[in-house]
Structures are given as C-alpha cells and as structure tokens.
From TrEMBL:
<keyword id="KW-0819">tRNA processing</keyword>
<comment type="similarity">
    <text>Belongs to the eukaryotic/archaeal RNase P protein component 1 family.</text>
</comment>
<dbReference type="GO" id="GO:0001682">
    <property type="term" value="P:tRNA 5'-leader removal"/>
</dbReference>
<dbReference type="GO" id="GO:0033204">
    <property type="term" value="F:ribonuclease P RNA binding"/>
</dbReference>
<dbReference type="InterPro" id="IPR023534">
    <property type="entry name" value="Rof/RNase_P-like"/>
</dbReference>
<dbReference type="GO" id="GO:0005634">
    <property type="term" value="C:nucleus"/>
</dbReference>
<feature type="region of interest" description="Disordered">
    <location>
        <begin position="187"/>
        <end position="207"/>
    </location>
</feature>
<dbReference type="InterPro" id="IPR016848">
    <property type="entry name" value="RNase_P/MRP_Rpp29-subunit"/>
</dbReference>
<dbReference type="GO" id="GO:0006364">
    <property type="term" value="P:rRNA processing"/>
</dbReference>
<dbReference type="Pfam" id="PF01868">
    <property type="entry name" value="RNase_P-MRP_p29"/>
</dbReference>
<keyword id="KW-0539">Nucleus</keyword>
<feature type="region of interest" description="Disordered">
    <location>
        <begin position="35"/>
        <end position="75"/>
    </location>
</feature>
<feature type="compositionally biased region" description="Polar residues">
    <location>
        <begin position="198"/>
        <end position="207"/>
    </location>
</feature>
<protein>
    <recommendedName>
        <fullName>Ribonuclease P protein subunit</fullName>
    </recommendedName>
</protein>
<dbReference type="InterPro" id="IPR036980">
    <property type="entry name" value="RNase_P/MRP_Rpp29_sf"/>
</dbReference>
<dbReference type="GO" id="GO:0000172">
    <property type="term" value="C:ribonuclease MRP complex"/>
</dbReference>
<dbReference type="InterPro" id="IPR002730">
    <property type="entry name" value="Rpp29/RNP1"/>
</dbReference>
Length: 238
C-alpha cells in the first residue's frame, strides 16, 4: 500500500520524505518545488528569419560579383613581361626629359632653401630623402672604368640601379653599388644678379651646389627612401 502511494507521489516528494519529517517534506515540496516553474532549454534552434537570410545571401552574391568584375592588380613579374617599365625606343631622347630636369631643379631649390649656399647636415638629410627622377648626374667613380664619365638625366631610380639618358640619346643602366654620382644644383638667380647691381655679391655667393652621392648608401627605391630616416654612420667605402 505504501509503495503504491509512493508511485502516485512525484519523485521529488518521495526523495524529500526520505530526508525530512513528513510535515517538513510537504512544506519544502510545496514552497520550493511545486510552486516554482521549471525552465527548460529547447533542444531545437529558434526559427530563422527568412527575410534576413535572403538579405545576407543577396549581399554575399553582390560582393562576389563585384570581386569578379574588379580586375586583379598585376604582379611585378607580369609588369616586366609586358614591358611596362621599359622606355620605348622613340622615347629615348634627351630633349624629351629636359623639362623634367628643369622641374627637378625647382624641386631641389624648394626643399633646400637657404641651405643650397651653406650645405651641412640639414641639407644632407634632405638630399637623402629626395627624389632623383630628373636629376642630371655624372659617374665620377666606379668599379667598372668604362662607366666613368657617363652623364645624363635620371629617368628611372630603382633599388639597385639608375637608368640615365645621355645627350647622345643613349640609355645607360648604371648599378649603384661601387659607383659615386655627382650632381649639381645651380643656385637661383636673385634680383641683384639679374640687374648686376653688386659685383661683390656674385663673388661671395656660390653659383651652384655640387653633391657627390655614394650609390651603395642609396640602395632603396625612391618611394621607400622618402619615408626612411637615415642616421650618420661610418662607411668603410668612404
């Protein structure tokens, strides 16, 4: 009879009856178990929003279509194969690059300012970060004797070499390693020089700034050199 009564009772009441007195077990079961709801986590996922799913699928499809239509950039090897870095034969003329050289002279006068007359560490720091496309350079020292004396306008400043167009319309590729380049930046003509008011000012003021560049210290691309901070250090080649 007692076992049948236990079967009719909830399992929680039966367990409490084994641990507490009957009155205490009934009170605990009524206050803390029977009157308290039991929250169960559903095993199945919540219903998905079909509209949001369609929107995400449409957005993903649109992005994939944009990527397919957008051409991929060419690699460096592909650019070389296509000859994008090569100057065509009809464009290898000194007169074509003379306006570029004049622009470069104005650029150098602007960044040097008054240091074009005095030089010093300030001018050296500015020259180290300058762009030499359009500069007229001359090879004064080189490990290869046949390169000494090459003079012309720089049309390409790569990491390890300079491409120079000479006055005879010859394109020369000069490596930077083991080579010393000389370039000259004429000082801007002042009003006194133009009107020839003072001859002493002409004698005291230098006519141009002559710079010698050791190519081994400039083995960087012009874009990388513009953002690089150079520090003065001892060089064994000097």
């Amino acid at each position: 009879m007692e076992s049948r009564k236990n079967k009719d009772q909830p399992i929680a009441a039966v367990l409490l009856g084994r641990a507490f007195e009957p009155d205490d077990a009934n009170r605990i079961f009524t206050e803390k178990i029977q009157q308290r709801p039991l929250f169960l986590t559903p095993s199945s996922p919540p219903p998905s929003d079909l509209r949001a799913a369609r929107r995400r699928a449409l957005q993903k499809k649109t992005e994939q279509r944009k990527k397919a239509l957008k051409p991929k950039p060419l690699s460096a090897s592909q650019r070389r194969k296509l000859g994008l870095y090569d100057v065509p034969r009809e464009g290898q003329k000194y007169t074509i690059f003379e306006p570029l050289h004049n622009l470069w002279l104005g650029y150098m006068r602007e960044i040097l300012g008054g240091e074009i007359y005095t030089g010093g560490e300030g001018a050296a720091a500015k020259l180290a970060s300058a762009d030499f496309h359009g500069a007229e350079v001359e090879v004064v020292r080189s490990g290869c004797v046949s390169r000494v004396g090459i003079k012309g306008i720089v049309i390409k400043d790569s990491k390890f070499a300079l491409e120079i167009i000479t006055r005879k319309n010859n394109l020369k590729l000069v490596p930077k390693e083991g080579t010393v380049f000389r370039l000259e930046v004429p000082a801007p003509a002042s009003e006194s020089d133009r009107h020839q008011e003072t001859a002493t000012a002409k004698q005291d003021q230098p006519s141009s700034m002559v710079i010698e560049i050791h190519g081994e210290q400039f083995q960087y691309r012009s874009a990388d050199r513009a953002n690089k901070k150079f520090r003065s250090h001892f060089s064994k080649t000097l």
